[in-house]
Input
Amino acid sequence: MNNVTIPSPIPYKPARTHIDLFAALLRAKQEFGAAKVIVVDGDERELSYKDIIRAAFGLGAALKKGTSRGEAVGVMLPTGAGAVIAFYALSAYGRTPAMLNFTAGSANLKAAMTAAGVKRIVTAHKFVEIGGLEALIAELSKVAEIVYLEDVREALTLGNKVAAALGPIMPGLFRSKPRYKSPAVILFTSGTEGEPKGVVLSHENVMANVEQVRAHIGLSAETDKVFNPLPTFHCFGLTVGAILPIVAGIQVMFHPTPLQPREIVRRIRSNGSTILLATDTFISQYARTGADGDMSSVRLAVCGAERVKDETRALVRRKFEIEILEGYGATEASPVVAANQWEHNKPGTVGQLMSDMESMLIPVDGIADGGRLQIRGPNIMLGYLRPSRPGVLERPKGGWHDTGDIVAIDDEGFIRIMGRVKRFAKIGGEMVSLAVVENCASAVWPENLHAAVAMPDPRKGEQIILLSDSEACNRADILAWAKNHGVPELSVPRRVFHVPEIAILGTGKIDYAAVQKQADDLMAI
Output
């Protein structure tokens, strides 16, 4: 391991969660100093607490025109200072930011906007141009007003400028003060299992998760720097990657996309970042791209969204002496549910539950040593918004959220993810995890991506089809590896197809809806 001092986690303090998000920003300014540089943007621009708060008051004063308190306003921006300032600008004046996934396609975005009642989207000309999003914006402009940050800045009124100047000094004169149990942000499910749903998180939900993570993982405002390339439309990228470091006084370096490994490792080295937020897919790319010393400042990587492969863990440990802390989350939980800790890190698990959370396992037919995970706690969402019932909040019954994941929990409380309920195939009456199938392929071809799906089988109910971007991938080698490692033959795919690439969502997860369609097409040939 790198020779570092491990900060002690702070105690979990529920009282710190009874506050709205903008008030938490103001509190952080008081705790750490208005002049502290807290954000480093993608263009290396540095922003202090005073810069962010001043910009939020000025921009928010302009954006509130034509909207009402509590209204959901779309935010479609890359990870960076612009997204953070727009988020806090809306929050300061009592509007609810709805973080839109610009990689989701117009149909899913329109459904998401219908669910949340979004009639206005905040974006930027430069972002639309660089991202080639002109066609998407043209479609969305049919159902919503598009507001460009550059245009807003050019048209700031004297009143807006007064709000920017005086807001940081006398915030009570300008800002709205929502109840901590009221909606703070709306994020959206991916839509891979049906139409996207709006997930409504309260100020308390988000602040509870911020404090839970701080109480779980040792972080230092004096010595740590976070590097966050994950999108803010993803809850991990927003809560852990933006709000947490800002609230905790930890400088955060933003990068607009996780898909630039060379640029990312260069910036990590130049900034001396100590904590990297990533997924298995992304960190394996960074580790292979980085040269000696490029990521030597990183003391730990916090990975979520997908299982961390043994090969990835070994690679980053061998090449950069980085410890990976694997965690588990859901947007509905703001998002962190469980995580490993430096001093209690059990590879193959996602760690233990956050403070103040409860779990319950519901038996699943065909699964002997696990169950369907339900969770409850202060970070669990207010509820869902569905396109079929716009604006109607569907609250979790009794406060319990059904994750849809099958897990096993050991005697020490460590959670092992076996897979989503929908990511199991039933073959001859037995439940087979598609994740295990992928793991077998990853063990043989660790530098490639593999995706398994289930398809109907006339004799055994279902069969497993594997797609891989490895030209060498074949069933015989997977079968041989499975036999040598005691893996049942049922976990070996019936058919294996090489494809040029495996579809990836903007969050870094495999796009299984696209994979399923690709598999259907290949099997039809």
